[in-house]
Amino acid sequence: MFKILVVDDEEKIREVIREYGEFEGHGVWEAKDGMEAIDMCKEQDFDVIVMDIMMPKLDGFSAYKEIRKIKDIPVLMLSARGEEYDKLFGFEIGIDDYVVKPFSPKEVMARLNVIVSRHNKIHGNTDLNQRYKFEGLEIDMIGRNVFVDGVKVDMTPKEYDLLFYLVKNKNVALTRDKLLDEVWGFDFVGDDRTVDTHIKMLRSSIGIYRDFIVTLRGLGYKFEDIK
Length: 227
Hints:
Elements: E1 3-7, H1 11-23, E2 27-31, H2 34-43, E3 48-52, H3 60-70, E4 75-79, H4 84-92, E5 97-100, H5 105-124, E6 131-134, E7 137-140, E8 145-148, E9 151-153, H6 157-168, E10 174-175, H7 176-184, H8 192-206, E11 213-216, E12 220-223
Helix pairs in contact: 1-5, 2-3, 6-7, 6-8, 7-8
Keywords: DNA-binding, Phosphoprotein, Transcription, Transcription regulation, Two-component regulatory system
Pfam families: Response_reg, Trans_reg_C
InterPro entries: OmpR/PhoB-type_DNA-bd, Sig_transdc_resp-reg_receiver, WalR-like
C-alpha cells in the first residue's frame, strides 16, 4: 500500500483514480489545483503524485518544480495533449512518467506501481547509502546531496538518480538502453535522446568534473574514476 496524491481540476478524473487506487488498497488524497497540491505536500508525505499539466492557478509543471524543492516525490503527469515537446520538457524537469488523456485507469495504476517500486529500489538500496569523493566532487547518496568544490549543487531528481546509478556502477560501460531501464523504468515511453539530454544537464551541473562521465561512442556512458 502506498499514498497517492491526485492533482486535477476535473473531479471525475480524481474520482476514477481514487476508485482504482483504493480498490488496490492504496490511500488516495485529492487536490484541485497546483497550489493546493504544494500546500498538501508541505503538510504530509506521499509516495507518488498523479498530476494534470493544464490546471487553473498553477500548471502541473510549475507545481511539480515547487514540490521537488521541498520533497523528493515521484510523479506521473497527465495531459490532454501528446506533443513530444511536453513530454521532453517534463522528463527534463524530472517527472517519472507521462500519460495522455483519455487514459486507461488500469494502465495508470500499473505505471504507478512501477514508479513507486523503482523509486524505493533506488533510494532503499543499501549500496547507495554511501558518500563518495572524486577529487572535488562529493556525492552523498544518503542525503541526496552533491557538492562541487564544497558548494552544494541543485539538480533535478532524475539528474540525481542518473548520477547515483553511474557512480554505483563506476568504471562499468552502460548502454543507453540499460540506463533507460534502470533509471527511468522498462516501460518508459522516451528514447535515447532522454539519456543524452540528462547527461548533458548532469555534466553542466558538476562543472569542471564533467570529464568523469565518459561518452562511449555508439554505446552509452560510464562514470570513470580516472585515479
